[in-house]
């Protein structure tokens, strides 16, 4: 059996040594396997893929000496509307469906019952590290979900603003602050439409050293207003440029397959020209646990 696509034991030890236990273990065209603390999620397109990856997972754990508590299976549908929460495949059904994952000593809550996404996007690991290295005074986290970027920034002394339509996601974000013993006094959590909040912040002349733009491919506000990445990202970036500080950074990120890093840069250059601003671009180093082309497309802009 070919096991070369699975994470090798040395890389797994490196992750553990830096106190990271959330990672991609295996990637194939028909699915992938990820570790979140003591639990594993197998994301699969077919039953055959699930069976194969389950068998190979057992062999891999024997090789690296990792013992998991539970396995969850998550079906990968063709349509986002058909997404469902992972189902427990192996383990005690009576145990809590929540756990904690660690990334470079920071703790994040994972909830396998909350929906398709479990609470932490591990393909943003290096971007969160970059935020911690920057140690910005202020950070605006748009489409914040469970506020992982806000936690990373707060851990190095930043004041943050987290914006998301979902009050539940922001409540989980507050829990992530508590997991890391971070007080929320200097942090705002705004349950509202990002496209409404950005102009409001601009009118108040608020500026941020870092702005995170990692929108869902599609979303609908409580008032029925829709956001579609392919048609609305440009408008989003134009609004974000109005609130970024001089020499500040903007993260452009998306999981939309039709928007790769090159397309993000073309769009960013157009927006800079439209706003008569300038910026330098850079990408963080590749993720060692993700094959090239897998995970979110991301690009950093440093404003001039």
Short description:
It contains eight helices and 16 strands.
Structural notes for this entry:
The protein folds into two domains: 103 residues, RNA methyltransferase domain (HRMD) like (Transcription Regulator spoIIAA), CATH 3.30.750.80; 182 residues, Rossmann fold, CATH 3.40.50.150. It contains eight helices and 16 strands. The model has no long low-confidence stretch (mean pLDDT 94). The protein is globular, with a radius of gyration of 19 Å. The N and C termini lie far apart (52 Å). Helix content is 31%, strand content 30%. The strands form four sheets. A seven-stranded mixed beta sheet has the order 10-9-8-11-14-16-15, with helices on both faces. It has 304 residues and is an alpha/beta fold. The longest helix has 18 residues.
Question: Strands, helices and their partners?
Answer:
Blueprint: H1 9-17, E1 22-28, E2 31-36, E3 39-44, H2 47-64, E4 70-75, E5 87-90, E6 98-103, E7 106-111, H3 125-134, E8 138-142, H4 148-154, E9 159-164, H5 167-179, E10 187-191, H6 194-203, E11 208-213, E12 218-220, E13 226-228, H7 229-241, E14 244-254, H8 261-275, E15 279-282, E16 297-303
Parallel strand pairs: 3-4, 8-9, 8-11, 9-10, 11-14
Antiparallel strand pairs: 1-2, 2-3, 4-5, 6-7, 12-13, 14-16, 15-16
Helix pairs in contact: 3-4, 7-8
- Please summarize the sheet with the most strands: 7 strands, mixed
Which fold name is given in CATH as the topology of the largest domain?
Answer: Rossmann fold
**Class from helix and strand fractions:** alpha/beta
What kind of assembly state do the chains in view correspond to?
single chain
Distance between the termini: 52 Å
Q: Uncertain segments of ≥5 residues (pLDDT<50)?
A: none
